[in-house]
Amino acid sequence: MNAERHEHTSRARTPLRDHVATSVRRYLGDLNGSDSHNLYEVALRELEIPLFAEVLRHCDGNQSRAAAMLGIHRATLRKKLKDYDLG
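RE: above sequence
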């Protein structure tokens, strides 16, 4: 039974990169042929803001735990949160 549950979980989990690729395709399609400038910076900001918010929520607001989960220093997380007006 445990093997069945693991197999089901593995099949059901879509890699994050697939979700990101879908969102990028949709965004580029929404441009209707227009060029986008600074797409890299825009994409990083648009990814980091919900990433930090959701990880902080998951960690009940504990910045040390959130930074550890993200694999970054707490000072880096605090700076990013300040930059994005998230805390």
